[in-house]
Fold each of these.
Amino acid sequence: MVNAHATTELERDGSNPQPKTAKRRLPFLGLIGLVLLLVGPWLFDTYLLNILVKAYFLAIVAVTVDVLWGYTGYLTFGQSAFFGIGAYAAGLVFTHGGLTPGNVFLALGIAVVASVAVAWLVGWLSFYREASPFFATVISLVLPIVFVQLLLSGGTWTGSSSGLTGYETFDLSIEAWYWIAGSTLAVVSLLAWVVVRSDGGRLLAAIRDNESRCSYLGIDTAKVKTILLVVTAVVAGIAGFGYGSFSGVAAPELGGFVLGTELIIWVALGGRGTLWGPLIGAVLINVITAYLGSSMPFAWQLILGAAFVLVIVLLPQGLVPVLLRPFGLGQYAVHEPALVSRPLKMQSNAIPEMPALVMDGVAKHYGHLKVLEGIDLKANAGELLGLIGPNGAGKTTLMRCMSDGAERSSGTVSLCGNDIRKLPPDQCAKFGLGRKFQNANIFETLTVAECLRIAGTIRERPSLVRQAATLALPQYALDVVSTTGLDKKLGVAAKDLSHGEQQALELAMVLAQEPRLILLDEPTAGLTKTERTQIGHVLSSLAHKYKLCCLLVEHDLDFVEEIATRIVVLHQGKIVMEGSFADVVNSELVKTIYAGSSHAMQDPV
Amino acid sequence: MILFLDILTTVAILFVVTAGLMMIFGVMKIVNFAHGALLTVGGYAAYVVTQLKLDPWLSWPLALVTGMLAGMVVESLIVRPLYKRPLDAILATWGLGIVMGQLIVIAFGREVQFVDAPIKGTWSIFGVDYSAYRLLLIPVACGLWATMTGLLNGTRFGVKTRAVIMNEDLARGLGIHSGRIRFITFSFGTGLGTLAGALITPLSSVDPNMGLNWLVSAFMLVMVSGHSMASLLVTCLVFGTFQVLVNTFVSPVLGGLAIAVLAAFTLRMRPKGFANG
């Protein structure tokens, strides 16, 4: 899902002069909404009230779509199915059982339970390793189509294509319904707003930016997304229950995929990733559709479709934020927590006496091509292992086999005494492994502070409601942050950092998860001389002072000589030599294989 | 016997309907959500031919050309700017599908219409009488498969296209104009989409939503088959057979969902689908 979203998140530059006013104006907008909600019945006629009640229920679903798509990057056409499930729960129970207090709870219960069950199944089908975001989207398209087909084949029980109508429902005035729908919308939006802004809620944006990084930080992203889908499905189901109870109609269109796509259009036009944009968009478009739809139905749909294409191509952040920008809205208030040191937590899964890494007979084949063969390797806490070898020797593949159980073809790997079997990267991270990639692998739209907080998720779960005033990191991560000057850039988006700063940020992120074994793939590549010295000091102190096991792939032999305690030479997929730097450099064998000549190693570059 | 012919013709129809989608997915790595609308456009091209009392065979080239022209405009105006935002690209093609659908409604109305088939009646084969036009689609699908395979494996353009499919950056580095390859394949894919629309309309009827019914099955087949023409054929064979069996022995309603549901589970169990054998 990397790069799938370009500029959906509004600019959150630290240099932005307006965050303070935004802080005051967003509640102001909310206040206008609340006043409208309160006095609506005296302002609007019955026809408009009717439309608004329906629009409010639909806007609730639009808010859930925004959370899933705008914040988490999961493009879904399927939220309408949950709305339909809620509406049909009301329709079916009230049609066949009548309106009794018991049946109301029964219907609501069915709406919730059915939504949970279906959402869980859809989550299981859509979110797994190697599943492409397209695939999840296509599954979300299948869901409403299957749902509608089942309704159509339900005969008189579901009312088939005309749906269920005329069932007895709550005897409430239109004003009461207006307040019920409006306050539900307000509560749902407020809750969503609190969660997405919270420290824990930033995880959604982290998944959108870089799902694989999340997983190497020990976060089970499939589980997070499935839980999120279940929660949003329940909300959509309850909204559908409200809609079905209010209108007295449960028609297949309510769960159909046309509505599913309309939800996407409302969210896109309103402004994804803002919550209030989709809310305003959904309500306005519904009201306009009700008035224009009768006089010029086809032309209006055409305009809507064309506007949608234009917005997607030219204005990905949506219309409402652009229209409201002159009023100072839509600017993010940058939150900069204070850094504090936290004591190292007990490692729950790592067994301290065991070696950090044991590889036994590890091999990796691509068909007949053997990339790694018979790798036996052991590394202990406090060691700083340098892994060298010519290009194509299999160094990066070896690292992959340590950090992802599904990578190797045979052999066993154990991390701190835990056999990794075929377990995914997030489990390996929980066994105490941290991996720093060759290219800075960070969360682009998150600020430095947010990246660091998400990175520590497996040690300290961020709150889902608050923005903490402090950011606690283990001392060695703090050292990296302060020596590289990142502590002065906590509010800067990660994509705006320099190359060296991004590398340092990723290292600090890996350290924030308190690994016992840390893998570094060419940590000095592209760094200046000062930065290289800094990272050398950091790594030495990690191994010698904090007793971490560090394993680095490096081409810079000077650097390896300065810090490594042991060298492992990899050649054509096999370990050909192990020993001290002097042993290796003076070995004739290494001289011949490393560069095909005996001169290369005497003058390391 | 009829069951066997049902299976063969269904597989042929599925292949015809998915080929254009596959072409675009293979090269551009995006699913063209306007594919349903393209099928509809093709259907209406056949309808126009019928209304003008022209030879029904003309509907095929007309549909192909319409689709290719539409594809050229769409690629340069909408898909190209979204190259770096694949999820937005599929949304834009979806929006485009809505626009095309509404234009068709404005031009032709919402009613269900019928078109003339190039050949009518039945052929007697293996002792049963079977719809001649359905049977005709079997050689058409085979011809389409042979043409596309030949194009990809036997021409310079095909070699370049396969290079772009495998590794676009490398291909560009070697001096292949990947933008042009994308442009050509996209318009070719849309042309195949409309052609498929014209091919399938004589089997039923045209209405502004006809494409939607095919869309989900076509998506799923492409997702399962990866990006080689041969695996697409295999996928159509397996899933088409399954669909006909469910249709015949269980219920037609479930038959309509069979492909989508089976494909979803197949991909869950075997994420690479049929791509690697």
Note: Chain A has two domains: 19-327, 354-432+517-526+548-605.
Amino acid sequence: MNAAASPPRRFDPRRIALACWLVLVVITATIAVRTRYVADLSAFLPSTPTAEQAVLLDQLRSGVAARLVLIGIEGGTEEERADTSIALAGALRKSGAFDAVHNGDNAGFEETARFLFEHRYLLSPAVDAQRFTAEGLRDGILDTTSLLGTPAGALVKPVLLRDPTGETLRMAEGMLPAQSPRSDGRVWISRTQPRAVMIATTHADGSDIDAQERALQLIHERFAPSAARGLELKVSGAGTFAVSSRAQIKTEVERLAIAGGVAIVGLLLVAFGGSLRTLLLGLLPVASGVLAGIAAVSLAFGNVHGITLGFGTTLIGEAVDYAIYYLIQARAAPGLAASTGARQWIAGNWPTVRLGLLTSVCGFAALLFSGFPGLAQLGLFSVAGLAGAAFTTRYVMTALSPDGAPGSALRSRLGKGVGAATALVQRLRWPLAALTIAAVVAVAWLPSPWRGTLSSLSPVGAAQLALDSELRGDVGATDPGMLVAVAGRDEASVLAAAEAAGSKLDVLVASGAVGSYASPARMLPSPALQLARRSVLPEAQVLRTRLAEATADGPLPASRLDAFVADVQAARSQPLVTRAALAGTPLNAALDALLVPGSGEHPWRALLTLAAGAKPLDVAALRAAVADVPGAQVVDISGELASIYGRYLHEAIFQALFGALAVCALLVLHLRSAARFWRVVMPVAASVVIVIAALSLAGVALGILHLVGLLLTVAIGSNYALFFDQLRTQADAHVGDAAYTVDNDTLASLALANLTAVISFCLLALSSIPALFSIGEVVAPGIALCLVLSAAFIPTRKT
Amino acid sequence: MPIPLLLPSPQSRDRRRALAGLVSLAVACTARAQSAFDLTQLMRLLAQVKSGTATFTETRNVAMLDKPLESSGRLSFEAPDTFVRETLKPRAERIAIAGNSITLSQGTRSRSMSLDAAPEAAILVDAIRGVLSGNREAIEKKFVTSVAGSADRWTLEMLPRDARLREKLVSVRVSGKQASVLEVAVAMADGDRSLMRIEPQTAVTDPAAGAPK
């Protein structure tokens, strides 16, 4: 420091500020290093669901749909594909990472079949009082024997003597899916391509992406020997999407951070004449801002999402703006002592920068109230980051470099160039105004562009989606578009409720309104029903008498049915089947898909998935049908997702308007002048309208993320308008005969700051992740327009 | 065709012998012309029937049972691939086949499945449907065929080509008269046999349909 200045004080505020800053940097760096980074898309699912949405989110996060892996085997001959399918299925079953593997080969089902057979008198839907009367026995035996001599007879024959009334068949009827894939005699094959198909359910939850990744890895490893023989493996499913989008987010964020960093560093070097010192100084607010952002999000949310980081790379472009403003604007005025630049800047320009910071913070703060945790993270990251960057500029840079950036060669050229451009742009004021009006007309006249859907948030590519729908079609695993959910206090009551709902659905199936449905109560009837069935089983002597009558002139003599009588006797004292009893059997996986045990205050839930018949499902009719089953809800999954998104779009619109209003209120408070307020708001509003019009005309479907982008445009663009307003105010306040000359340095700093911000949002716009490019494609043109329109509409020269 | 007797007259015994030889030659020629009734001609005949209904009685001999199983009911067919069998005795049940789907109904319960998901059932359906619609390519693709008899009384025997399916279904033998199918006999690999006798009731024919393309 200059010896001529005041003697150094021990508690020099600048030194204290530097010390505090260093401490904060160390703390936030530690937090940032130890923070947990996640990259799954559930951050973009809403966090305050209704009861129906709770069921839906349950399903999406950890339901069977989220654990399905669809596998296709292509190449080679039909024999080879079938052999590979059988080998791969066996290997996957043995690996323990999969609950169930279905490939059309019945090899894995002996255990299940045996379990069902042994408990047939408790599980079969045909067992009722009528069944064991002489009439009922005769009808049952006739029904079963009528299948003999046909291809179906092969299934019936082995157990005919022990199960003459065909309970096994009745159970199978209820449990077989309505849509089976095509079979080549050994395994499932596609109906449209030369491909063997199979379906596997991972043991791991759908939301545990690491485990999903390991499961997928396992499939590829077990397939490797077949791959060596020229066969090809195709895999799809929700887990695949989650794993690949996580990988995509990771690489994108790295790319953005590197590209953003390189671009900004390059720009700073060029603008400040290659001075490394200036570059490092300029990067201080950036680094502080990023650390502050990460630490704040980590402390508030417990993790930092990859998309937040990706978005946070734009913070580099915005934070460096503060550095640029300071470095360019804080030069010592000619004639004043050195080291006074900082003080002058603090007095003159800092209020404008501070106001700009506040408007930006208002805009981002509106995101904090969003129902999507992902967006709330974006908001907090930006608020903390911008505040950190601004205050670092105010306290640290002023201390370290009191005269701003040394040298002015390029700056003055840049300043002059921008001055000339500003004059040019001001001559274009009327054409630009006309453009604004045309945009307003276009927005009013075109149909609403707010057509975005939840699927537009997903980064999964079109080719992957096409493969997925092909494999689903092959296997018949179409997403359950609709289901009926029932709740109960415990296992028994929820199963009873499922049975009640099932009987209502049976009526609809008979009338054709519903194609078919799956219910956990088919695999596990409620204890009450099992008891009822057990109680109608007659004792040995009674049964023999009735059998004699039933088989009197039938094809199957009663004398050969001793095993049947013995089995019925055993069933009379069989323990009831419970969920625990099924736990060791392969049926467990199928049951778990439809029966969700409760815990604490969460009730038990049973899900009945519906499949449409010839006609599409009618939600209203379904709701009416299950209305009197207590606790039953009809959950229309795709409808729910669409309405969730619609609701959040509405909420987001309100939040965005609220944010914009907060910005306006802030401006009014600080500017205290209607004219000035109008001057600042007009260019920003105009650029928002022009961006909306341009995207509508281009046919882009706007969604929540575009709305977020518009909010950011307002928050960031208002900074430029404020600076132009400041210049105008200075011009207006200028007294004296000499003409007021525009401060070219301020213009240069604005142009440079705008350029860095536009570059970082342009990088976002080039990303392949919808969440990021939606924001980028709105903000990049938006803030560029803000600058141009501010220059045009806020006259800085008295003519 | 009368043979002109413009022969010189040697000894009468030789003449008789020569005459007998010529007559038997003529008969043999005619007979061969008649037994050239083959699959193509049979399919052409059958393809003329566009739709029809019939009643049937079926007897099944199953090794496990003491007595044969008897059933009876109605059949209906509509080209090219719709076939319905309605059993009335001893228990009412209905099997409807249309395209790739088969619907089984018993009382109030009914269940639909895709045929191609159950190849063992599909092969039998292919045989019957192929015959009824006169679809030669479909039958030849899946079965080794042999035709015997004449147009007035023919028999078509079909053996599945696929080795795995032959392990379940041994043969399907269809016999009939002209364009009517009168009997279907199915032999399963485990020794079970079924014989269905059919009495046609109505038939809608389209003679042009059988013309060679």
Note: Confidence is low (pLDDT under 50) at residues 1-5 of chain A.
